[in-house]
Specification:
The chain is α+β, with helices and mostly antiparallel strands. Helix content is 27%, strand content 23%. The protein has seven helices and 15 strands. Strands 5, 6, 7, 8, 9 and 15 form a six-stranded antiparallel beta sheet that branches. A hairpin with a 3-residue loop joins strand 3 and strand 4. Helix 1 runs antiparallel to helix 2 and helix 4 packs parallel to helix 7. The longest helix is centred in the middle third of the chain and has 18 residues. The radius of gyration is 19 Å and the shape is globular.
């Protein structure tokens, strides 16, 4: 093995990790550290990746250098990596799809630090099977995130919809709702907006759906824009570009309520141990139909 290449086995494939000792994240976290983490987290992460087009957040010179968001798959990528061509305005884009550990390690070698996924899958690309509510605080204050998540959880329960919480590894929380894939992006985004609008109307002093920061007045933003066509959300167990390598981590509602929990609580040092507890057990089962939930929501509003 050359000093600047480490070869890793993943199933039947060998992946060359170039410059494994290169520091990509402050605190001395190297490409090799990230590769070891991804190989260990793969059994828990891959179910959230398979069949979904990806946008890659790449940091070739580490998080202190320039980053770029990659949608189109370069021709230089190995032919065994799955791709999917999807429509965009004025043409198409060929996204990478991560189906196995080998692909995951190859993307680490490309310094694809954070993976962002579509809410739909190949084969039913125009029919999302996930809703995502992004709870984005005005300041780095997790207390208000925790409270907003509690309120949203209560509303989802009222509508008969399950919700699975996840720290983003940045400042907020995502609440993921499994749906049955019978509606297009416009319908699902509109439903998510109706839910967010109703919750903000109940708590106008602390919550808002105003997309412009200048209109939020210091309130937490209930962001539903990730539910549109070609929009993405961070993948569960993906690493974020921050000190200590924080991880977007699924957790239980009980863990979310704990005072010590915050958006960067888990890192590559302990996210695998958290994953092994199966925190989303029972939360992301069969996708729910939106019709009954929509009727309950509109009855709630008196329309």
């Amino acid at each position: 093995m050359k000093d600047d290449v480490r070869t890793m086995r993943a199933g039947s494939r060998s992946i060359d990790l170039h410059r494994p000792d290169k520091v990509l994240i402050p605190d001395g976290i190297t490409k090799a550290d990230l590769a070891d983490y991804h190989r260990e987290i793969a059994p828990f992460m891959l179910p959230h990746l398979r069949g979904r087009p990806l946008m890659l957040e790449r940091h070739p010179d580490g998080v202190d250098g320039p980053r770029f968001m990659q949608k189109d798959t370069p021709d230089s990528y190995p032919e065994w990596i799955r791709r999917v061509e999807v429509a965009k305005e004025g043409g198409t884009v060929t996204h990478t799809v991560c189906e196995d550990t080998a692909t995951l390690l190859y993307l680490v070698d490309q310094a694809a630090l954070t993976l962002h996924r579509w809410q739909s899958r190949v084969g039913r690309i125009d029919r999302p099977d996930r809703l995502v509510f992004d709870l984005d605080p005005a300041e780095d204050d997790f207390t208000e995130v925790r409270e907003a998540a509690r309120l949203l959880h209560g509303m989802l329960d009222e509508l008969g919809l399950p919700g699975a919480p996840m720290t983003t590894g940045s400042r907020g929380v995502h609440i993921v709702v499994p749906i049955d894939g019978h509606h297009d992006f416009d319908e699902t985004r509109e439903f998510a907006k109706e839910v967010a609008d109703a919750l903000a109307a109940d708590h106008p002093d602390t919550l808002t759906t105003a997309p412009r920061k200048k209109d939020r007045g210091g309130r937490l933003y209930l962001d539903v824009l990730r539910n549109g066509y070609a929009q993405t959300a961070v993948v569960p167990y993906s690493v974020r570009a921050g000190k200590g390598a924080p991880v977007a981590t699924p957790l239980t509602w009980e863990q979310l309520a704990e005072p010590g929990t915050h958006a960067r609580r888990w890192t590559i040092a302990d996210a695998v141990a958290q994953a092994r507890t199966n925190p989303w057990s029972g939360l992301l089962g069969k996708g729910r139909a939106l019709g009954p939930a929509r009727r309950k929501l509109r009855a709630r509003k008196g329309s």
